[in-house]
C-alpha cells in the first residue's frame, strides 16, 4: 500500500522555530535516515546530545517532529512528522521576525542545493552513463501573472505527487532530488553575463 505524501503548512511561529542551522539539519536527518535517538543524531551531526534534545523538543513544539513508540526506558526516539513542509510569504507577512526567518530559510535552502548539486557533479563520473544522461538540468522563462504562476505550481505539484512512490519492482529506482525556484525577472541585473548553452535552457517566451 502506498504511503500518502503529506506536507505540513508552517505558520509564522513554526517558520521562526525552524530557522536555526542545527534544527534544519536535524529535520533533514530524520527525513532521510528515519527515526533516531538524540544520541545517534548528535553523533552523526557532530554535536552534543543536550543541544540535540533541546532542538528536537523545539521542532516538536510546532509539529515538525514527534516522539515514536520505539523508545525503551529513558531512551527517546524521534521521527519527522511529515515528509515535507512549506509556507508562503502570506504566512509570515506582518511578523518581522518570521519574515527574517523566512528569508534566512530560503537562502539556507539555496546554499544547501548548491552544495548538494556540486557533490553530484564531483561524483557523477563514478555513476553509470544511464544515470548521468537522465540527470538533466535546465531553466525556462514564462510570462505569467501571480494567479498563473500559482496555477502552474499546482499542476507541477500534481505531477510530483504521481511520482512520489517508486515502483516496488523497479530495482533501479533511487531517491532523486528535484528543485525549482520561481520568481519574476524584469530588471537588467537579472540578465546573465554569458550566452546560454543550447540544450540546457530555453529562451523567454512572450
Q: Can you describe what's shown?
A:
The protein is mostly helical and 206 residues long. The protein has 7 helices and 5 strands. The strands form 2 sheets. The protein has a 3-stranded antiparallel sheet with strand order 2-4-3. A two-stranded parallel ribbon has the order 1-5. Residues 194-206 have low confidence and may be disordered.
- The figure for the number of domains is 2
Global morphology: globular
Q: What is the C-level CATH assignment of the largest domain?
A: Mainly Alpha
> Mean of the pLDDT scores?
87
Extended strand count: 5
Query: Low-confidence stretches at least 5 residues in length (pLDDT < 50)?
Result: 194-206
Query: Regarding quaternary structure, how should these chains be classified?
Result: single chain
At CATH level 2, the architecture of the largest domain is: Orthogonal Bundle
Beta strand %: 5-15%
Strand order of the biggest β-sheet:
2-4-3
Question: Could you tell me how far the N terminus lies from the C terminus, measured between alpha carbons in angstroms?
Answer: 44 Å
The ordered H/E elements are EHHEHHEEEHHH
Radius of gyration: 20 Å
Residue share in helix: 40-55%
Find the CATH superfamily of the largest domain: Winged helix-like DNA-binding domain superfamily/Winged helix DNA-binding domain
Secondary structure category: mainly alpha
> How many individual helices?
7
Biggest sheet architecture: 3 strands, antiparallel
In CATH, the topology of the largest domain is named Arc Repressor Mutant, subunit A
Produce the secondary structure layout.
Elements: E1 7-9, H1 12-18, H2 21-33, E2 36-37, H3 38-45, H4 49-61, E3 65-67, E4 77-80, E5 84-86, H5 96-123, H6 129-134, H7 146-162
Parallel strand pairs: 1-5
Antiparallel strand pairs: 2-4, 3-4
Amino acid at each position: 500500500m502506498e504511503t500518502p505524501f503529506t506536507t505540513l503548512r508552517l505558520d509564522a511561529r513554526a517558520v521562526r522555530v525552524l530557522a536555526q542551522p542545527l534544527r534544519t539539519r536535524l529535520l533533514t536527518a530524520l527525513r532521510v535516515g528515519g527515526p533516531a535517538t538524540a544520541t545517534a543524531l548528535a553523533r552523526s551531526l557532530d554535536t552534543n546530545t543536550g543541544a540535540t534534545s533541546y532542538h528536537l523538543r523545539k521542532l516538536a513544539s510546532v509539529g515538525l517532529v514527534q516522539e515514536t513508540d520505539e523508545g525503551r526506558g529513558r531512551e527517546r526516539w524521534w521521527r519527522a512528522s511529515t515528509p515535507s513542509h512549506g509556507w508562503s510569504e502570506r504566512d509570515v507577512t506582518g511578523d518581522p521576525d518570521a519574515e527574517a526567518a523566512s528569508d534566512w530559510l530560503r537562502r539556507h535552502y539555496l546554499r544547501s542545493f548548491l552544495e548538494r548539486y556540486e557533490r553530484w557533479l564531483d561524483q557523477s563520473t563514478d555513476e553509470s552513463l544511464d544515470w548521468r544522461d537522465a540527470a538533466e538540468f535546465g531553466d525556462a522563462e514564462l510570462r505569467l501573472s501571480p494567479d498563473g504562476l500559482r496555477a502552474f505550481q499546482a499542476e507541477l505539484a500534481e505531477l510530483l505527487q504521481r511520482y512520489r512512490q517508486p515502483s516496488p519492482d523497479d530495482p533501479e529506482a533511487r531517491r532523486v532530488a528535484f528543485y525549482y525556484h520561481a520568481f519574476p525577472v524584469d530588471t537588467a541585473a537579472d540578465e546573465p553575463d554569458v550566452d546560454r548553452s543550447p540544450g540546457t535552457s530555453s529562451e523567454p517566451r512572450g
